[in-house]
Amino acid sequence: MTVLRTSMRNFFAHKGRMALSAVAVVLSVAFVCGTLVFSDTMSTTFDKLFAATSADVTVKPKNAPEGDEEGPKNGRPESLPASAIAQVEKADGVKSVEGGITSTSVTVADSKNKNMGPTSGGPTLAGNWTRNELRSMEITSGHAPRGPTEVMVDADTADKHDLKLGEELRTITANGDFKARISGIATFKVTNPGAAVFYYDTKTAQRELLGASGRFTHLSVTAATGVSDAALKQNVTRTLAGDAAAYKVKTQKESAADDRKSVGSFLDVMKYAMLGFAGIAFLVGIFLIINTFSMLVAQRTREIGLMRAIGSSRKQVNRSVLVEALLLGVVGSVLGVGAGIGLAVGLMKLMSGVGMELSTKDLTIAWTTPVVGLALGIIVTVLAAYLPARRAGKVSPMAALRDAGTPADGKAGAVRALIGLVLTGAGAFALYTAGQADKASEGSLFLGGGVVLTLIGFVVVGPVLASLVVRVISAVLLRMFGPVGRMAERNALRNPRRTGATGAALMIGLALVACLSVVGSSMVASATDELDKSVGADFIVRPAGDSGKPLTPQSVRKLREAPHTGHVTRVKEVQTKLTTPGGKTESEALVATDPTYTKDLRRETVSGSVAGAYRGNAMAVGEEFADKHHLKVGDKLTVDFDHGRTVKLTLAAVMSDDTAFDKGAMYTSIATAERYVPAGRMPLDSMLLASADKGQQDAAYKALKAAVAEDPAVQVMNQADFKDDLKDQVGQMLNMVYGLLGLAIIVAVLGVVNTLALSVVERTREIGLMRAIGLSRRQLRRMIRMESVVIALFGALLGLGLGMGWGATAQKLLALEGLKVLEIPWPTILTVFVGSAFVGLFAALIPAFRAGRMNVLNAIATE
C-alpha cells in the first residue's frame, strides 16, 4: 500500500508532465480502436446489405462469378433461361420464384453526359425491379418502371446528383444506348455503402442488359412457411438434378458469404494498413514515455535516495515507478478507447464525403476492441517505463543523497554503441544484398530485414550519433547566435541519450516519408521514361477512372472512324488454359490485339519475330514463361479458349520481360481469337491505342475526344495526359500515407515538447542563475527554441538519410520489374527538412514561454 500511495502522490504531483505522455497513449490507442470499430462497422454494413438483398435460395448459372472473381468481359453477365423458373417452381417448399437481372457493365449519364456512377469505387448496378428487391428497398417516390422509357433510381444517387422524377437518363451498355425518364425513387432499408442502383422493367432489362429475351442472371426463390433455407436448397437442387452442370444453388447465408468475398480483401487491406500506422505511432510513443520517466526519475534522485536510506528496497523503488506507468497506461488507454470510437465516427463522416456511405446506426463495437486497446496501451506503457524504473532501482542511497543522479555507466554506453553499430552494419549489409538480388521476391526479404535492423541500429546508437550530428548542426546554425547558441548546443549535448531518444521518435516517421517519396518519385520517373522509350502510340484510350469496365462497341466504332487518325489498335484480354509441350497446364490471359500493336508498343524480342504472332495460328510469350517451361520458337502450345474451342498455336516469338509495360504478357491476333471464341463470348476491348496522321496530333486528339464525348466512361489521353494521370495516382496514394504517418509525427512532436518541458524544470536553478547574471527573457526563450530546433533537425537528418537509403534499395527491386530510374525528390526532402525546423520551433513555444516567466529568486532557491 505504501508503494501505491507513493506512486499515486508522484503521479498527481507531475500530472502536467504526465499529460503529454498520456496524449501519446491516447492517440495510439485511439487509432487502433478507431480502426477496429471502423472496419467492424464496414463489415456490419455490408453483411446487413448482403443479407437483406439475398433471397432464401438463389439459383445462378454455373459460370457466374463468385466473390471477388471477375465477371465476363463481353459486357453481358452470365444468364440462364426463363424455363428454369418452371422447373424450380416444382420443388417442394417453394412459395414463389422470380427471375432477376443484375449487371455491372453499364454506365448511366444525365442529360449533360455526367456519369451517375459512384466516385468512391462502388459499383453501378442495373437490373429489373422484382418483389425480392422489397427485402432491402421501398419505393418512396413515384412508381416502379412500367415500360422501356422508365427507370427507377435509388434515393442516395438521386440526392447526390439532385435527380428528380421525370428527368431523363441515358444508359450505356455493350448492346447500345437507350434513354429513360425517372419514374420512381427507391430508398434502401439498410445502409447503402455507395452503390448506384437503377431499375428497369424486365423486358427492357433483358433486351438492353443481356442482349436477349427470355433470360435472367439469377432466380430468387422464396421458401414456404416452415421450410428452412437448407431444406429448400436440397429440394431445388434435387429438382434441377438433370441440369446440375448448368446451375449452382445457394442459400441466403451462402450468397451473402459469396458477396462478402467481393469486398473482404478491400476491407482487410484497409484494416491492416491502418493498424500498421497505429503500430508506428505506438513505437514513437515508446520513446516519449521512456524519456518522460527517465527525466522524472532523474529529478527525484534525492527523493529516491531518502526512500532507500529509510529502508526501501530496489524492488520497491522499481515497483513505484512501474505503478506510475500503470496508472498512466490505464488513464491513457481508457481515454484512447473513447477517442477511438469518436475517431471511427469521424472516419465514417469522412468516407461519406467521398461517396462511401456509412451510418452510425451500424456502429459496431466488439468486446474485443476495448480489450485490445486497453491491453496494448497498458502493456506498451509499462514496458516503456521498465528501463527508467530499473535505472531508478540502481541508485545507491549515498549517491542519491549527494544528488549524484542516476549512475552513469560508461561501460554500458560503450556496449550500447557497439551493439548499435553491429545492428546498423548488419542492416546495411542486408540492404546491399537486397539491391544485388536477381529476383524481387528474394530481395524483398532482405529489404525488410535491412529496414528493421538499420532502424533498430540507429535507435540504439542514437546517443553516439547525437554527440556527432548535433555538433555539426550547431556549427552550421547556432554559432552565429553567439553565447546563446553555444548554450543551446551544450544543452542538447548534455544528455545524448535523451536527445537521441527524442530525435529517434521523429526519425521513424520522417524515414518512412522519405522512403515512400523516393519510391513514388522513382515509379513515376521510371514509368515516364519507359513510356517515352516503349510506347509509340500517340493516344491511349481506356475506361475512365480505371473502372475495369470494357469499352463499348459503339464507342470503339466511333473512335475507329475518327478523322486525322493513322490507325486505332484494339486490345482484348482472352482467358485461356495453356498446356505446354511438357504437359503443364496454366490459366493465362492472352492479349489479343490488331497487328499494329507492334508499332504502338516497342517490346524487345529475345527470339523469333513478334510479327509472326499475328500470322496464322501463332502466339508470343514472355521470356520468364518461356524459360520456366523450356519453350523455344516453333514449339506448339495447346490453348483452350474460355467458352471457346481448343487449338494448337505455334510459338512465334519470345518477348523480353525487361519492361514496365506489358511485362509477362502473351500475344496473339484478334483474328486468331475470333476463330476459336464464339462472337457472343468474345471479350470487348479493354483499351485502344491510336496514332495521328503526320502533323495532325492536335486535330486527332480533338477528334478522338469528340467521338466519345457522350460516353463519360471513356478516357482519351495523349502521352502528356497519361504521365499527369500517373503522377496524380501516385500523389494521391502518397498523400493518404503521409496523412496516416502524420499521427506518428504528432506523437513525436509531443515528445519534443515533453522533453523540453521536463528539461526546463530540471534546469530551474541553472536558469535562475543565468537570469541573475544578465540573460534576458528573450535570450532564454531563444536558447530553448534553438535547442528544440537542433533536436528536431537531428531527428530529421537521421530519418531522411535512413529513408532515402531504404527508398534507393526498394528502387533496385523495382528495377527488376522494369522501373529502372532512381529519382530522389529533393524538393520534398528539403521541404521536410526545413519543415522539421519549424516543428522544433513550434514544440518549444510552451516550454520557452514557461521558462521566460520563471521568478529569478524562486528559481535560484530551488533545490
TrEMBL record:
Cell compartment(s), UniProt: Cell membrane
Transmembrane region(s): 272-298, 321-345, 365-387, 414-433, 445-478, 499-519, 736-761, 788-808, 828-849
Residue ranges occupied by any ABC3 transporter permease C-terminal domain in the UniProt entry: 277-397, 740-855
Gene Ontology cellular component annotations, sorted alphabetically: plasma membrane
Keywords: Cell membrane, Membrane, Transmembrane, Transmembrane helix
A Pfam family that the UniProt record links to this protein: MacB_PCD
Domain MacB-like periplasmic core, first and last residues per copy: 19-238, 502-706
Membrane topology listed for this record: Multi-pass membrane protein
Span list, region Disordered: 60-80, 109-128
Alphabetized InterPro entries for the sequence: ABC3_permease_C, MacB_PCD, Macrolide_Exporter_MacB
An MF annotation (GO) of this entry: transmembrane transporter activity
Primary localization class, coarse: membrane
PANTHER family: ABC TRANSPORTER PERMEASE YTRF (PTHR30572:SF4), MEMBRANE COMPONENT OF TRANSPORTER-RELATED (PTHR30572)
Protein family: Belongs to the ABC-4 integral membrane protein family.
Protein's name in the database: ABC transporter permease
Source organism of the structure: Streptomyces silvensis
